[in-house]
Amino acid sequence: MFRTALLRSARQAIRSAPRCQTPIARPVVRSSLFQSKHITPAAYFQAVRCYSAHAGLAKEEVEGRIMDLLKNFDKVTDTSKLNGQSHFHNDLGLDSLDTVEVVMAIEEEFSIEIPDKEADAIHSVKQAVDYILAQPDAH
Amino acid sequence: MSPTSPALRHQVIRIYKELLYLGRDYPQGYDFFRARLHKAFASQKDLTDEERIRKGIERAEFVKKGG
Fold first, then answer.
1. Residue A106 burial by CB count (10 A; 0-12/13-18/19+): exposed, middle or buried?
2. Model's pTM, two decimal places?
């Protein structure tokens, strides 16, 4: 009697295990609205952990976002010269004031604040990418 | 790159940034403001005399307070 009950509960646990995998794997935002009732405390905890975990910006993503930003910058007329190595002044024809604006746009894009001294040292797409990658707060 | 002192250069860049932030809600549009501000600063790019650069920064500060 006791043994069958134990076996049954074990079987049930095994069967239900893969089912509760799904809410964990789903994005937090989607599950919070519609599936909040189904989420077990363990899954909820997992979701919170996922949220706080450092996403770690990939180099390609940072570069892509900076390039998009430059593409939309009206002072950049010759987008054919725009690549990962472009120099703001030599390749894109931006002056130092434009560079200040680009750096401001980068600050907003990645929600960080770049100190004046470091902002002054950013003259190319590569330098900007390297700087963002070195910032743990950038996202 | 100008050979003038980096401290003055940073001051100019800072006031430029501050004015840009202020221009966000300029009535005639941010792009209008940005182009004008850029022209105003670029027209003074040949200044090498530190005293005159300081005067220019003072003028920018005056614009900032008035705006």
1. buried
2. 0.67
